Amino acid sequence: MEACRLLVVNHAVETGGAERVLLDFLRRLDRERFEPGLAVPYRGPLVEEAEALGVRIHLGFPSRRLLEIRRKSLGGRRAAAAYPLDFLATVLRLALLIRRESYRLVFTNSAKADIYGSLAGWLARRPVAWRFHDLASPETFSRLNLWLLRTFATLFARRVLAISGAVREALLALGVPEEKVKVVYNGVEAREDAGEMRQRVRREWGLPDDCPAVGLVGRLVEWKGPDVFLRAAARVAEYFPETRFFLVGGAIFGREDYPEELRELSRSLGLEERAVFTGFLRDPLPAMAALDCLVHASVEPEPLGMVILEAMSLGLPVVATEGGGVPEIVEDGRTGLLVPPGDAEAMARAVVWMLSHPEERKEMGERGRKRVKEAFELGARCREMEDELLALLRPGTWGG
Question: How many angstroms separate the CA atoms of 8 and 109, rounded?
């Protein structure tokens, strides 16, 4: 059987969470079933990694001005007047590309790409599947963008593949037809080298094996709750003063000053050298393996929580804020402990329990690793995604 030509559409070229998941999918994609292409606005880290995987690249989608649109606003007022023309030009050029290059399926991987990509696919008479990574709510998107998501999902997408049940429920509450939305979880590889990574990184850090280490992993941005983590750390240090608290990740564009604000907060809390800022790490997994407990501190609901899955793949127990898709991953009391968002005291109590119960903590980690293998194994989730895409080519569907 001839491989299906699949066009992936993504508006971002940096390798954020959704892009890392996409690269994992492209890396595992069965090339006997699919021949992938990628449409992006310009070159960047995502393009470089996709090219290394043999993915064909199409630049110029969407127009750069459309990238100024934000989830909660339209960006600059001057540029906004040109958005309709830019949008129309992007859609028409993308539709022509789809037809010219004989792509049979369109797979959009970001909220912006969902809009222009699904209309282009519809015009090209090709089925479109969305990979939806966000919680569609007024806290995340403007009313206009929520209307666009509902309307375009209803009219132009054949399938919306939500990354969690929480994401699916938000889409249904928005008004997207139930029969269009299917949950396909993100996946991770279960790691068997966690012990070796732990020893190596602890040696590099000069951290004794018996020194407790607790960490927050991810971009340093307010909604991820690094300030809550530091306040909880100050309380934990009262019981375990030798503990080191790691913040693994860098700032986001536009908030480069935020890590220094957090360093100042750590000093004011008396943490001094006990709070360690690693900065951006291209591969944070080894640093994660060096920890005794991962803390997920988001103050807003998380669509799923990939860092939690990665920690569990290493056999690492987690303390996580409850909300969004997190309870779908963490079984409270079995693979980790759930705490209310923004509650530094509850977070500190949970971490103290973890550090006080090493045997139970280890058992939690092992149960978490087992859960990842059973429900979130990367290869199985990629095959499920492939099957969902190929189902769109059955007779009676555009492109079939």
Answer: 7
Contact by Cβ (8 Å): 65, 87: no
Note the helical H segments in the chain: 17-28, 45-52, 77-80, 83-100, 111-123, 143-155, 165-174, 194-205, 226-239, 258-268, 285-289, 306-313, 326-329, 344-356, 358-375, 378-391
Give residue for tokens 């009219």.
155
The answer to whether 341 touches 300, Cβ cutoff 8 Å, is yes
Tell if the pTM clears 0.90, that is, is over it: yes
* Cβ proximity of 221 and 252 under 8 Å: yes
**d(C-alpha 58, C-alpha 39), whole Å:** 5
56-59 vs 105-108, strand pairing mode: unpaired
Per the structure block, which two tokens stand in for 93? 């050029």
Measured distance CA(174)–CA(166) in Å, rounded:
12
**Average pLDDT of the chain to the nearest whole number:** 94
Q: Which amino acid is at 135?
A: L
Place of tokens 């991770």: 188
Instruction: Give me the pLDDT at residue 65, please.
Output: 87
Kindly state the average pLDDT of the residues 214-228: 95
pLDDT tops 50 at residue 236:
yes
pLDDT digits (tens, 9 = 90+) for 101-150: 999 999 999 999 999 999 999 999 999 999 999 999 998 999 999 999 99
